[in-house]
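Incident review: delayed structure delivery

Summary: a single-chain prediction request sat in the queue longer than the usual turnaround. Root cause was a stuck worker, restarted by the on-call engineer. No data loss occurred. The affected request and its eventual output are reproduced below so the record is complete for anyone auditing the incident later.

Affected input:
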Amino acid sequence: MRKYLLKYKLSFCLTGFICVLQGLLNVMMAFMLANCIDAASSGSFKRFITALLIYAVYILGMTGIDILQKIIKPIYIRKTMTYLKKDIFQHILSKDIRSFSEENSAKYISILTNDIGMIESDYIENVFNFIWQVTTFLLAIVSVVYINYKLAIAIFIVSIIGFYLPQRFRSLLSKRKAVYSTSLEMLTAKTKDLLSGFEVIHNFNIAWKANELYDDINMDVERKKQNFSIVSGVINSLTNFLGTCMFVLPMIVGGYFVYLGTITVGSLIALIQLMNNLAGPLSQSLQLVNRINSIGSITEKIHELTKEEPEETFTHRLPVFENELSLEHLNFGYTKEKLALEDVNLRFEKGKKYALVGASGSGKSTLLRVLLRYYKPDSGDILIDGLPYEQVKLEDIYKQITFIQQNVFMFDGTLKENIGLYQDYSEDKLNEACKIAGLSELVKGLPNGLEESIGEAGNKLSGGERQRVSIARAILRGSSFILLDETTSALDNKIAYSIEKSLCDLEQMTLIVVTHKIMEDILKHYDEIIVMKSGRVIEQGPYDELYEKKGYFYSLCNVEETYEL
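Output delivered after worker restart:
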C-alpha cells in the first residue's frame, strides 16, 4: 500500500507534519497547566497573569492547527483514494477477457466498494492517527524523563509489554479480517445475482427462496463480522488494561515524590496530564496497529490485482486484414473429458458472409469465442492472412473483429452516446448506421432524436431496440469482421431479415453469424452456411446446395417453415 500512501508525497508529509504538531501541542498542555498552578502558588499576580496569557496564546494556536488538519487531511485522502480506485479500476479493465471471465465480477465490485472502504477507514485514516498518537507518546516520555527519570523507566517497561501484545495477535486478527472480507464478496455476488433476476423471481413466485438465500449469506457475513469484532475487542481490552496500569503507576509514584518534596504540586499536575498523553496514546496506538495490521489480507488481494502483468508477447502485427482466416484441425474442450470443438477445418474469406447453424450445444458460440481468443485451442492451428493467430498482437485482432453479443452493454446517456460509445462520428455516418441497423424509425419517433436519453442500462428501449443499437455500433466501427451471436433472436422476422440483408450487402465486411432462425429468405443471402453438430462441422455450402443434399441441414429446415432450435 506504500505506493498509494506516498503517491502524493508533499500532501502526505504536510498532513503528517500537522499530526506531529498536534502531538507536540498535546504534550505542551501539561506544562501550560503546571506553569499556571506554580504561578498561582507563588503569590505573584503578575506571574499568574503572564501564565494565563501564554496559555491563551497556546489555546489559539492549538485551535488553528486543529482547523488546518481538518482541511489538509481530507484533501490528501480524497486524492489518494481517487488514485487508488482509479488504479484498481484501470487494472481490472486492462485484463484480457479470458482472465477477467475467470473471476466473478462481484469480486471486483466488492474490492472497489467494501475493501476500499476498509482501507480508507482502517489504514489511511489510521496511519495519521498513529503518527499523532506516537508523537504524543514519545514527547510525553521525554517530558516525564525531564521531570523524573525514575518514573520514565517504569513507564518504559509497561510500554514494551504493551507493544509486544498486538504482535502476538496480528496473524489471528488478519485471518479474521480476511474471512470477513471474503464473506462480503460472496454477499455482493449473491445480491447481484438475486437483483438481476428480479423479474424471474416475481414471475415464478420464488421471492421466499430469494429471501432465504439472502438471509443465509447475510447471517454468515454478520457472524464473521461478529467474530472479528470479538477478537478485536478482546485485544483492545487487554491494551486498555495496560494503558490504565501506565496511568495509575505514575500517579502513585508521583504522589510519593511530592510527599518527599522532590517535585512540586505543579509538576505532579503536569505528570498526571502527561499520563493522559501516555496511557491514552499508548492504548490508541496499540489499537491502531491492530487495525492497520488487520487489513493485511486485503492489501495482498489488491496487490495481486494491481501487480504488473508481463507484457503480451507477439511476433506479428496485423494493421489490415487482406485475405482469409483459416482453422485447421482445431480441437477445444472446456474439460479434458469432452471436446466442445472437434477437428474443425474452415476458411473465412474476406468480404464473404457465413452463417453458423445447428442445435443448441453444437459449438457455434464456442467457435466464435475461440476466434476472439477468449479460449486457447487444445490443438490445431488458426491462421489469419497466413500468420499464427496466437502470435498476432491481441489489440490488432480486436481492431479487425467486432463481436455483437446477446447481452448488450448500455449505459445511462443519450442514444447517440450509446451508439458512438463517445467517439466522434459525423451525422451522415450515424444516420447510415442507424438505417442499416433498423433504428431510423425509432430515432424519428423520439422527441430529441439521437440526443434522447435512454435511461439506466437502456431501460427506455426494448430488447430488440437495444440489439439494433449494438449492430449500429459495429457498423460505425468499420471492422473487417463482424461476429454476431444470436443478435437478431430478439427481433421479429421482418426486422431481422432487413438487418441481416443490409449486413450481407456490405461488400468489404466479413460476416460470421450464429443463428437459430432457419429462414430461407435470410440464409440465401449468405455465401456459405456452416452446419455444426456435437462440436463438428458436418456440412457446409450455399443454401440451395445444402438443401438439395437432404442431409442434416435439410432436416433442420423442415422441422418448421421458420423454426428456432
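Verification: Residues 414 and 453 are 4 Å apart (CA to CA).
Action items: add queue-age alerting; document worker restart procedure.
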